[in-house]
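3.2 Worked example (two chains)
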Amino acid sequence: MLREEDKKQIQAQLKDMKDPVRFVFFTQQMAGTCQYCIETETLLKELVEISELLSLKILNYITDKDDVKSLSIDKIPATAVQADKDAGIRFYGIPTGYEFAAFLQMILALSQGNSGLDDILKERLHQIQNPVHIQTFVTPTCPYCTRSAFTSYQFAMENSNIRADVVEISEFPHLAQKYGVMGVPKVVINESHSFEGALPETMFLEHIEIALKKE
């Protein structure tokens, strides 16, 4: 899927990786059961060939039930991205278009162990004690989605109570209907609160705090 030119650019983007990063990919290869599972697996396999610090573990969504449960995977294709531990970072669908940029940015941040957030935001995030489930709905053609996706990843890196799911919504139309996704990026927090648009990190965090107050 990746051209040689693309591979060289990705290698340059990831040249400052420090620690290993692993993709845990969930798939189901029976005919007609998973749109884009094969394509996503191919993309991940090509990515791990680019850097010796990247690795891939492929699991079956139907039979590997313990892993599905422990990583809270609820649809496929699904990719959990982990460094030395699981930071609650998930991508549902195939990361292409603008979202591929956020995907690479997240890999580098995880490998370096640095979210890139300022100390004030980190302190506010560290004060969150209750579970937070962020769903960020995106499309490959949305230039503004990259920011929202990466912000959710940054928050998950800073607090183990936060899980960040980025969902390529065109692959999951039932979720578009469920959550009323009329435009992207759309962020849903703990099923109880949502907003649209690419907000600065501080405003994004304020929405999380609002959602927690509702509970």
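3.2.1 Second chain
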Amino acid sequence: MDKIYWHQVIFMKLRIRDLREDRDLKQKALADYLLCDQSLYSKYERGERPLPLELADRLADYFGTSVDYLLGRTDEKAPYPPSKRK
């Protein structure tokens, strides 16, 4: 796998775990929100499975951030203003 991909997986797993823990949520709660099993969600947090873009988008909306933040492409937690979305 290419280096950029693994960099994104590492950031994603750390960021989704940290965002979840900051809100004192259990993995099961987010798994239910994403309509998946807790064991699958756990694999996303451990970086054992790549998080599908659709689920990353749903998590970004849930946490009020951007997918770019989840991927480590920015350190800005705030989502993009609607006028800049395309």
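3.3 Remarks
The domain at 3-78 is CATH 1.10.260.40 (434 Repressor (Amino-terminal Domain)).
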